[in-house]
Description:
Blueprint: E1 4-9, H1 18-27, E2 51-55, E3 59-63, H2 72-76, E4 82-84, E5 90-92, H3 102-106, E6 113-114, E7 123-124, H4 130-134, H5 142-146, E8 152-156, H6 157-170, E9 190-193, H7 216-222, H8 224-251
Parallel strand pairs: 1-9
Antiparallel strand pairs: 1-8, 2-3, 4-5, 6-7
The protein binds iron/sulfur cluster (3 copies).
Residues 65-68, 71-73, 90, 107, 109, 111-112, 125 line the site of one iron/sulfur cluster.
Amino acid sequence: MNQMSILTDVTLCIGCEECVKACKNTNGTGEDQPWRWQRKIDDLSASRWTTIVSRPEKHYVRKQCRHCLEPACASVCPVGAMHKTPEGPVVYNPKICMGCRYCMMACPYGIPRYTWSEAVPYVRKCIMCYDKIKSGELQQPACTAACPQKATIYGNREELLQIAHKRIEEKPDLYIPKVYGEHDVGGTSVLYLSDVSLDFLGLKKEMDDKPLPPRTWAFLKEVPYVFVGVGALMYGTYWVVERRMRLEAERRGEPWPPSHEKGER
Ligand code: SF4
Ligand code: SF4
Ligand code: SF4
């Protein structure tokens, strides 16, 4: 498999957040919006596609989309707005996203975020700088290029796995003997080496090494708020789609609802 990937070595990260700044500047995600009583912004948001989570004893863990080899988010998207590219990144098409938020519930790592503050909200997440690398504007993701410690590096997945295993072999007393993302949920394109457990990055205990897509709907049905909230979610989806169409009609100076929906011919 010749997929492009990112390897983050937690033992090398100093928490400087240069990667976060580079991502924000490159992708024009805008200012962080504090969420109610939040003092320190350390979680992902629609304007923060990667973040640094502080752990005890000066451990800093970079969080971002894992770009799963078989992404659950893409498997549940009813309109195919989220998809895995042959090059590795999992990207989405905002033009066809209808705002249903199934991807947010399906992701085993709780990654996708929603632009709640916008009149017409969309899903947002790291896209591994796919568009800019494909167009030749960037040679590698902005975050990996910006890291002064080379704590997060970009490359071919197979080569990054070799580098990771070599580091574990050379320093068995330092690293947890596992490359996070090598097998988890069928493997991911973002890999981690660490000297502390990173299990906290995966929110759902049910995760194992098998890919999620074949089991996603069965899995979602086990989540009580999904089961109970399907009606509410469908109403929310209708509301978002309807609002999006209404604003688009207003922009074009057309009546809303369209005349044929009022029974006129
Ligand atoms: S980590 Fe979540 S959002 Fe990212 S590709 Fe995997 S399932 Fe999709
Ligand atoms: S790969 Fe690109 S989009 Fe993803 S966190 Fe890094 S800079 Fe941001
Ligand atoms: S730029 Fe590198 S060292 Fe700084 S926070 Fe990001 S991953 Fe860590």
